[in-house]
Request: fold
Amino acid sequence: MHITSPSFKANARAALADAPLQRALGNLRAGFPGKRAAAVARLPEFEALRDAARDLKNHILEHLDFYLETFEANVKQHGGQVHWARDAEEARQIILGLCQQAGAKTVTKGKSMITEEIGLNDYLAQHGIEPIETDLGEYILQLRGEHPSHIIAPAIHVNLDQVSDAFHAHHGRYGKTERQTEPRQLMNEAREILRDKFLAADVGITGANFCIAETGTTVIVTNEGNGDLTQTLPRVHIAVTSIEKVVPTLEDATLLHRLLSRSATGQEIEVYGTWSSGPRRPGDPDGPSEYHVVLLDNGRSNMLGSEFQDMLRCIRCSACMNHCPVYGAIGGHAYGWVYPGPMGSVLTPQFIGIENAANLPNASTFCGRCESVCPVRIPLPKLMRHWRAREYEKHLTPQGFRFGLGVWAWCVRRPALYRRLTRIGACVLKVLGGKTGRIRSLPLAGGWTAWRDLPAPQGRTFFEQWAERRPGGGR
Amino acid sequence: MSGRDAILGNIRRGLGRGGPLDGAARAACEERLRAHRPVLIPARAQRPHDEQVALFVAMATEAAASVARVAGADDVPAAVAAFLDQGGYPRRAVIAPAQAVSGLDWAAAGIEVEARAARNGDRASVTPAFAGIAETGTLMLLSGPDSPTTLNFLPDAHVVVLDAARIVGPYEDAWAWLRRERGLPLPRTVNWISGPSRSADIEQKLQMGAHGPIQLHIVLVGD
Reply:
């Protein structure tokens, strides 16, 4: 996938001016947050579950090697195979090898962000194997030659008429020449065409939301059922996942299940939770004959013991981006790589380097909504701040910003001067605010006032108010 | 060095450990795996059985499944016939070989059945369920020679026969039954199913019947 994260600011400007995209983002803002809130309100234990999930994931990360080895041993015991991939290139090679071994011409795919992370589709196609996305959203994007802009609603940026156009352009060869305009009809058309693809595929590739150490099981969580057809009908099933997805027991995966769909779509539970343990057993009339799990590291193990370890708790629910005012304004593609929104602003610098992604951890007002809805309580603003610190240390921050920060630091180390300056500043801004209390333009603050008014201070500084409110008053 | 050793080595370095987990810490993790203790079970899943049955029906209905209640197993074929008629399906079904389903008198209800895995074009299937989970109206189905997985996904209509005595409150109780009654390893596939297939990938508007069944019908036997 071509990385456009370095041009984030230009991407964001273009996204703000993109009327169809803005219409599509309206659907997101009107949908997910309200649905999540309703689901949470129905489960009084939700906050306690979040605590338990955070503690569980922390326990797993502290013993990650042990649970991964246990998982591997139990997969093998059921006749499955585990493949360890250090990086994207190794993962692609392993998967290509398995497909070639199976003599595969076509491969059906369930929705998987890990296969986006490793750029699998292009690689398979280059080697003469046709990958077919079967999740409706992913299928639409494949026809349009696009990548997902959201981790669970990949085509959220696409409008109905654009889907009609894509299907009309590509479905003629299946005898579907009429341009459909109703979501129902469009979905039926995709269902019909993809049925034949499921039945013809030699290999089915899915992701895995969880890997269960105790039983050697991979779990997928879906609503469409495409993941199940993908992994049940072909002769070979490959589950591509990453090392931090392992959990100890069925009960632990169940705990995370209670949080995942509620946090993601606001559903009480997904339609299909599918727990797969190995290939077809003696006497089974269906199911794959081969079962492979590809465990990807790709830099995750480097995050252990670092200030970014908490990020490995992520269960990829998308709540952080659904509630992020920045994501809601610009959508996922502006972030320029696979993972958008707050979780992406922490992960992307890790995967493609902070020198390519320095804008991302700055694309936040630190309003904290992401952290407040995260089911595993990842302190996302804090982690973005860590990236900002690294950016500063590496001298990637712009000169003007560094100069401003230097001036502020100089002042703040001289409390008397700092208090005097802030008092003067507050008074001046109050006067500028006039009767309305709002400032429409301000020298050096054009970046703010070009888009919105600056609320003027009410004339007194924090220190003054603090001194007054403390018991006893005074200093 | 293999990918495996490199990854495990890097994990251990990150965790500040020279080698594999050992001693008391390892024993504690092994004990944790054996104990498989439930973490936190919501109060809604801890009520008396009759309330769990009512909750199961309510939650399954909310998930857009339809539920028919019958007094005994002998009444199941007639209930399935009514469902097929109402949905405009032919009185034909592909059924799981499991005795709980294949042992019923389908001919008496005028339904033509075949016990096998599903094929493309099958309109309706009938399968047994291992358990029903009241918490979210979820069915738990197990794959095996008696219950092919394709029956759960390929046909347009999926009918599941569930004994009301097999309804539990939380998911954890169903796992406990599975461990006790079947032991490990788990069946090749355990399916949790809550309502029919759906997608909101076109403009966030929910549509039923994406790739899996368009209708999920539960025949609940007894009370």
Q: What stands out?
A: The CA atoms of residues 170 and 389 of chain A lie 48 Å apart. Chain A touches chain B through 104 residues (CB under 8 Å).
